[in-house]
């Protein structure tokens, strides 16, 4: 019982599909390695100690692929943005100094815009549009930068600068992931 040409061609296509397509998709869903985490955290733009602390903070992170890690990072950062937005809104309502009130109001605007950047980032990630995702993450970084610049015009609580530094670092980590691993 021999195989005819049609059967061989069909078999070859199935083998090709299984070997190349299935293995390629499996490659994209592998867990992030310690070496890759090291590459992210030692990137020149990233605060290494904060990065390692964050990425080693939960055993759940170790089981994620790059899409999952990016989603985890964006989720955490978007919550932090929302919390900071509420904090700035509260400061606007409670501050009597007109200059500080104006600066806090600018931060309300930038953090409000930042929350819409996250909405875009989640959509971009879900659709695997990594080029647009990069721009959405840059948007979050720009919004935090804008607020930080505005706050530098007076002497607010130093914790605000620390919190802004954290969200900026999370954005930078996201950018490194997109550039080094997702856009490949």
From TrEMBL:
Pectinesterase inhibitor domain location: 32-177
Which Gene Ontology molecular-function terms are recorded?
A: pectinesterase inhibitor activity
Q: Does the keyword Amino-acid biosynthesis apply?
A: no
Pfam entry (one): PMEI
**Carries keyword Disulfide bond?**
yes
What are the boundaries of the signal sequence? 1-26
Q: Which UniProt keywords apply?
A: Disulfide bond, Signal
The record's listing under NCBIfam families reads: PME_inhib (TIGR01614)
- Family that this chain belongs to: Belongs to the PMEI family.
- Name of the protein in question: Pectinesterase inhibitor domain-containing protein
- Gene source species: Arabidopsis thaliana
Its lineage opens with:
Eukaryota, Viridiplantae, Streptophyta, Embryophyta, Tracheophyta
